[in-house]
What does this fold into?
Amino acid sequence: MTGTAATEVSEFDSIYKLPVAVVPTNREVARIDNPDVVFRLEQYKWKAVVTEIRRMHQQGRPVLVGTTSVEKSEGVAAMLDQEGIKYQVGTRAGGEGGGCARVFDFKI
It folds into this structure.
């Protein structure tokens, strides 16, 4: 079961010949769907990410950040170094073409 199947009713019908039934949730949805944020330049996006990381860090909350390349991870790491935020880096190989992503788990 998935909540996203309702948005793909036509695909399930045309490809798989399967009906989709929406089952209501057992509880009220607790998630808050914030509006999308679009940045004119990638550097503005990463500045906003670091600002949010700093905010979470000050609250003592761990943060997990995924990037699409080692280069982007190194850029985020450099920005965090400038902010004096401690972090741990983990690397995972993934997908075809040997792509690599790094994730950070920020600790106080």
Remarks:
- The longest strand covers residues 88-94.
- The longest helix spans residues 42-58.
- The chain is about 35% helix and 15% strand.
- Residues 87 and 106 are 4 Å apart (CA to CA).
